[in-house]
């Protein structure tokens, strides 16, 4: 199944994002232009105007504060096994405006039930899974935080700023004086 790309301008500190689209839906999102699942980002561009228009419109509404759920179809090809289970748990159980810790997501997913986890291995593993989330934004890994703060975030050199921006948009964090989001 072929993959093409839609590039969407954003107000995010990381700049535009690229979304891989297939006949099934969005298969990957890249904040930084780095490859996803071994697939080179950006080419070929999506020529399906209806599909590209839907992706662009939904993201525009989300970034303008007019949409809480992107409601785009997802192609899960780059997330399999336990990683997919954790991501699907996140998508289903952590709504707009809410956060969950890495450890809480590990417990809710059921993936680590057999692990005697006195050392926080499950939470660290979920952190690595979030860092490798091929569907960032659609599967909102920005809503997963450390038990003592924001935690980390991919998305290139401005990743943590991007996480803060998204959590501010969703009302989790208060806006700062330099925040450029919707009023």
Automatic annotation (TrEMBL):
SUPFAM superfamilies: Methylated DNA-protein cysteine methyltransferase, C-terminal domain
InterPro entries linked: MethylDNA_cys_MeTrfase_AS (IPR001497), MethylDNA_cys_MeTrfase_DNA-bd (IPR014048), MethylDNA_cys_MeTrfase_DNAb (IPR036217), WH-like_DNA-bd_sf (IPR036388)
Domain of life (superkingdom): Bacteria
Domain Methylated-DNA-[protein]-cysteine S-methyltransferase DNA binding: 85-172
Transmembrane segments: none
Catalytic reaction(s) noted: a 6-O-methyl-2'-deoxyguanosine in DNA + L-cysteinyl-[protein] = S-methyl-L-cysteinyl-[protein] + a 2'-deoxyguanosine in DNA; a 4-O-methyl-thymidine in DNA + L-cysteinyl-[protein] = a thymidine in DNA + S-methyl-L-cysteinyl-[protein]
Biological process terms in GO annotation: DNA repair; methylation
Protein name (record): Methylated-DNA--protein-cysteine methyltransferase
Organism per entry: Kitasatospora atroaurantiaca
